[in-house]
Amino acid sequence: MKSTLFGTARRAVLVLTTALCTVPAYATPAFDACAAEAASQWETGYLQTGKDTWDLDAAAAIKACTAALRQSPDSPELKGWLARAHFANDDYDSAIPLFEEAAEGGHVLALAIFGDMLITGDGVPTDMERGAELLRRGADAGFALAQNSLGLSYDFGEGVPQDYDEAARWYRAAAEQGMAMAQSNLGLMYEEGLGVPRDYVAAAAWFERGVAQDDVSALVNLGKLLQDGLGQPPDLARAAELYGRAADQGDMYGQNNLGFLMENGEGLEADPAGAAELYELAAAQGMALAKHNLALLYEDGRGVERDLDRARELYREAAEGGEMRAAVNLGLLYMDGTGVSVDYAEALHWTELAAAENQPIGLNNMGHIYENGLGVEVNLATARRYYEQAASLGYDLAQDNLTRLDRPATSGGKTKTK
Description:
The chain is mainly alpha-helical. 64% of the residues lie in helices and 0% in strands.
């Protein structure tokens, strides 16, 4: 995820839903019945009738495809569709042997889904190398889902050496077939200049294609681009509209980002109470950044009744989830005795955690701790080192503290991070 206050979807979530296999030349009524229940809209010949995994009637698909497979026990397509139906029913014990056989038969659906399962360890022991091999077979066959997933493998070095050029190439192959996930992923490559030249206009164009399909990642990523005014003038109203569309689909990034704009009245009327509700929704899905943002509201009593115990709990959960700004703020609660007894050991623990991740305010506050001997021996050399690290990251207060150390007369400064 982008390390900003807003957050964004770094990559589209893998959705194991589609196949691009061809229909056998001599399909039977039983085959057609299975396809009607278990084929996806990405498969050749099933654009209008295919379904996403979450739209399957798993029981009906299992019944139809089991009957069809009895008639044609060697059909890789039927094995792949039946495996998909069991997969949708969370019956991995039944799905995996069928995926194995269908993949062996070259069925691209099985190659893609089983390849992803092996990479993520979803129901099977993790084997990234084999997973990437299966994805490559599907990608080489022109299957968009396998191409997008292989792009992810190269993007993050999962089962293959990290290679942004290859990642962008495979994302493009899937994006050009109309896959919204891949369009969003390719847009991010252009936004970040990974495997392609940095080009915010091209990024926006690919995001727009995904937005036209109401893809949540594209909605959030284009919203963030418009929020930051990258490649075009900022458009906070449209950013809010895009985040809202993602939030309406239950996407935690859309919920958090819309909450931030709503809290601050950017692109829509300020409504801290509405922002708190959105942060709650995202926090309930485990989003550390949303927990941090909600904690700020509880600490300040904005949009919610002030509740320092709740703020401290949320900061702790967010910090444990990797949000270092929350670790800074939790350290300050203990350092200042805000809603809790002063506890320099706890303050040091949380502030040091943030500093270890090069969080500039955490580094500055560590300097304050050592300069003033808060639970540690006064050590101006250590304080200076922390201030210098924070200043090198562009934190102005740390530079002020360095200047002041040469003429010590007042206590060093520390701040809360928002």
